[in-house]
Structures are given as C-alpha cells and as structure tokens.
Design goal:
It is built from 10 helices and 16 strands. By secondary structure, it is of the alpha/beta class. It has an 11-stranded mixed β-sheet with strand order 1-8-2-3-7-4-6-5-9-10-11, with helices on both faces. A 5-stranded parallel β-sheet has the order 14-13-15-12-16, with helices on both faces. The longest helix has 17 residues. The structure holds adenosine monophosphate and magnesium ion. The site of adenosine monophosphate has 19 residues, from strand 6 and strand 10.
Amino acid sequence: MKTEVINITTEYEKALTEAKKLINDGEVVAIPTETVYGLAANTFNEDAVKKIFMAKGRPSDNPLIVHIAKFEDLAPLVRGIPEKVKIMAEKFWPAPLTMIMKKSEKISNVVSGNLDTVAVRLPKSQFARDIIESCGVPLAAPSANLSGSPSPTNAKYVFDDMNGRIPLIIDGGSSEIGVESTVISFAEDPPRLLRPGGVTLEEMTELIGEIVVDDAVLNQLQEGAVAASPGMKYKHYAPTADITLIKSDFETFKNLCESEDNVTAFCFDGEENSLSCPCVTYGKENDGFSQSARLFDALRELDEMGAGKVYARCPDTKGMGMAVYNRLIRSAGFKIKII
Ligand code: AMP
Ligand code: MG
C-alpha cells in the first residue's frame, strides 16, 4: 500500500476531504492531535477498527480511546454520565484528558478490548475535532506507533512506523503536549487515575476531590496481577537502547556517566555542556511540560545515534512530571538506581 502524506499548513481543506473519504470508506488515517499522532477509524465500523490493531500490531485486549468533537456526542456511547464526569468535562474538555465510563451497546468489544467500559476523549486539536465532525462519527484512535515503540509526535515518525501499512498520514507539525492523554476511570468511585498526562492529578483533585492513583502508574505491575488499564501490562515506549534511570544529583550522575565506558547520557537541557560523554537532552529540569514535549523524540534519537547503555536523569513526579516519569520508567524496563 502506498502511504500518502498531506500537510495541513498548506492543504488544510484537502487533508480534511481526503481523510474523511478514507475514514468513511472504512480505512485508517493517521491524524495529528495535541498529545501525539493517532491512528483514526470509524468507531462503529468493526472491520475498520480491526485494521487499526493490524497496522499497529496491537494486542486485541488493549482497548482504544474513542474521540468525540463535542460533549453531546458522549451520551450515546455510555450508560449514563456520572456527575463528576460532567464537572470534569465542563472544566477541562477539550483537553488531553480521557474519561472511562460504562459503555453502551453502541461500543463493540473490538473497540473496548472486551471490557464493559469505554474510554472517551474530546481533543483540543482543531484538526482532530474538524475531522471527527466531518466524518459524523466518533473516531477510535490509539497512538500511531507500532505497538511497543514510543508514540510519534511528528509525521516523520508516523511514516517511519506506518509506511505501507496505512493509506494516509496528515502532517500537522509537532504535537504540543508530546505524551498521550491522562486516562482516568469513572467506572468506580472514587475515580482511579490509570495513566498520567497533560491534565495533572493535582488539577483534577482540586476540582473533584479524592482520586486513587493506580499502582501501575508509578510501579511495575506484579507478576500475575490484573491491569486496570490493559495498556499498562505491555512493554511500552521502549527504544532499543538499554536505559537505566539514575535518581541522584547532577554531580553524582556526571561521575557515574564519566566513570564507565560507552555511556550515553539522557539529561536535562544545558547539562550536556558539562558532560564529556555523548548526550541526548529531554527538556528543562523541573519543567514537566518541556520534558513531555521532548521525551518521545529524544527516545527515538537515542536509537538513531545507536546508543547502547544509557543513563537517564530522573524527573520529578509532581504535576506534569508524573506523566514523564510514567513513560520514562517503562522505557527503562523499570530499572532505577538510587545513589
Ligand atoms: P493509546 O490508544 O495508545 O493512547 O492507549 C490507550 C490507553 O487507554 C491504553 O493504555 C488502554 O489500555 C487504555 N484504555 C482504553 N480504554 C480503556 C478502558 N475501557 N479501560 C481501561 N483502560 C483503557
Ligand atoms: Mg499507545
């Protein structure tokens, strides 16, 4: 299959028309969103949704997020909207925020990975909302990477993974947030945070009170445990490079990197000037938003430069830092050294 790329900066209307045509024909199209690029298909067309799983090589028990263009699109997808969801939607949507509820009969088991719940997001990205609106159906869309590799934050990385697998990629430049949406489940009360992202735990707690942070957010899932979010049990965001997170001050980190051979440092902006080994930077220290915007590109750069052993600076887990730590600890296969 030939994979076409259309840029929205120069050809917005053509991008919208071509993407709509393909999606309404039951095809899969990669689209830009403010979090990362997504692989979008008609939620109500099971064959189209199956093509997403095939293109990504995604396990069929890992459910997809359903994207809507306006709050009114939510009701038909779920069995009642909890009061807290209304409050959250009012305050945050459109946003990098996915809310899980009991699903209605309109959501097939293919989309929900056989769960009785559905994950729904109203994205901020204008193109994403325009394409949902013009297709006239909610779009099921996971991240547009091959299963297991870092989520793509620009059209080139989508092309690297999806060339020949899907007919069209819409190029909308770099994703603003750079990591996937916050996922929080309202299928239970108090609600449970399953994946940290662009809307932070602190902001949500301030609005609706107690939120349980699922164990798998910051820790490795124990052998045999059932994942509240199936995505959390799979190896994720993993470059070929062998990463270890180093929890220490910068001086200790520098000594470690420089005392061993063939180390690549994965460090904060500016620190590369004080290190004598090869470095990849992933944003400013104590600035979760600048780290999240850089993280996945930086992970892909490690592989592009052929990095082997990588020592990574450890981000703070407050605010947006929690989302960064959640991805980075998985890329490191949960290897962490506290010095
Ligand atoms: P992605 O589509 O790559 O952003 O991944 C979506 C994430 O949301 C995965 O980790 C899924 O396991 C999770 N997810 C989607 N739907 C549900 C659901 N109904 N219950 C729990 N987790 C879900
Ligand atoms: Mg993903």
